Amino acid sequence: MKKIKFKAFFILFLIFIVGIFGFNYIYKKLNGNPVMIKETAELLKEQMEEKYGIIVIKSKGFYTTDIGYAATLTTESGITFDAWRRKNSDVNFYTEEVWRRKGLDKWGNAGDFITGTESVELNVGYREEGKKDVHKLIKPIEEVSNDLWLTIYVDLKEAYKKKKAKGIEEEIFKYYQFLQQNGAEEVELIVRYNENFLRRDTGSYMIIRNAEGKLPNIIDVEDVSETLNK
């Protein structure tokens, strides 16, 4: 009887130990190793400071199952960007964030033209990785816009209303003219109406490239109207 009890206890003990190790393994797979997260934050801080000649005042490590170990870094000048840890290199978005900041400073005044603007954002990507030249960061964004994919997103507070659409389109046209006159000839523009009371998308004006990479020719308000995608 004692042997049976001991065997049962031993089996339960093994199940308990295996459970602990199994839980720990799954937790680290989903949330990462806390030690590695801390090491990643320190490593990427050093790498970014050396690579770009910047001062990083904050580096917060994190882990996701999609990208692995990474960190969100903030520089002395207020630029916040992510960097991913890789075995023989790094993936980081410092230059994109610098251009985003410059672009918004120059072109982010949609609210001066379009009534009911809630937010303005600029999406930045490189046409070719070879164009990612740190020495160009001192230049104005309009001088390097041909190296970049740039899309301005303007979100409106209100949902689409037919009776108000023409007025909004006139304001979008004025803003687009401003962009054309201030070095943003190659920048795409998307103006998005808010969701309706059913939380459904109510449309966006999409002044973007076609399949051949060409932007539409916007010469009047009617051309803006034709870009509405509902």
Describe the protein:
By secondary structure, the protein is α+β, with helices and mostly antiparallel strands. Helices cover 38% and strands 27% of the residues. The chain has helices at residues 2-31, 34-52, 94-107, 162-181, 221-225; strands at 56-64, 68-75, 80-85, 90-92, 117-126, 148-159, 188-194, 204-207, 228-229.
How does the overall form come out from the CA principal axes? elongated
Mean pLDDT: 88
Stretches where pLDDT is under 50 for at least 5 consecutive residues are: 18-30
The radius of gyration is 26 Å
Got a strand count? Answer: 9
Number of helices: 5
Q: Helices and strands, in N-to-C order?
A: HHEEEEHEEHEEHE
Kindly state the percentage of residues in helix: 25-40%
Counting copies of identical and different chains, the oligomeric state is single chain
Q: Ends: how far apart? A: 77 Å
**Major β-sheet strand ordering:** 5-6-7-8-9
Specify the biggest β-sheet: 5 strands, mixed
Measured by DSSP, the beta-strand proportion falls in 25-35%
By helix and strand content, what is the structural category? alpha+beta
Short description:
With 230 residues, this protein is of the alpha+beta class. It has helices at residues 2-31, 34-52, 94-107, 162-181, 221-225; strands at 56-64, 68-75, 80-85, 90-92, 117-126, 148-159, 188-194, 204-207, 228-229.
Give the secondary structure arrangement, pairings included.
Layout (H helix, E strand, L loop, with lengths): L1 H30 L2 H19 L3 E9 L3 E8 L4 E6 L4 E3 L1 H14 L9 E10 L21 E12 L2 H20 L6 E7 L9 E4 L13 H5 L2 E2 L1
Parallel strand pairs: 6-7
Antiparallel strand pairs: 1-2, 2-3, 3-4, 5-6, 7-8, 8-9
